[in-house]
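Q:
My hope is that you can spare some time for a protein that puzzles me. I hope you can help me see how the letters and the tokens relate. Thank you; the sequence and its tokens follow:
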Amino acid sequence: MFENTQKLLATMMLAVVAVGVTTSIVVFGLLSSSRSVQSFGTVKAVNIAVYWDSNCKNATSTINWGMLSPGEIKNVTIYLRNEGNVALRLNLTTQNWSPLNASNYIKLVWNREGQTIYAGSVITATLTLSISQGIVGITNFSFDITLSGTES
């Protein structure tokens, strides 16, 4: 009988522990909570595209200046579209001149330096290439033009 009492007592204790654990799980389950919160933001897209036409149908990435003579000035009209979503202040730079000394005799300027182009808008730009009267030893040349925009 003593053994049966011990077994009964052990079974009851296990039952009490099991109820306590279940109650703890339920209580902790009731006390914990989670919530989903939406997140959104705006991404700044800075992008200038270059076209030959005001409708922005004919994109370009090269300009062929053709045959030029010493002292000659040549203008090329292009159209710039701000394809981003912020206003940009425009800048033109040149690099990778070939031959290296060509930049001593050939100059490129434009009429849009420092001007602002608004998101989604299209503006006309005139590039002006000037060949020095004193150019010597250069029969062919090439260089890269970089049109960039800084958020304004």
Observations:
- Strands lie at 48-51, 73-82, 88-98, 106-110, 116-117, 122-131, 142-151.
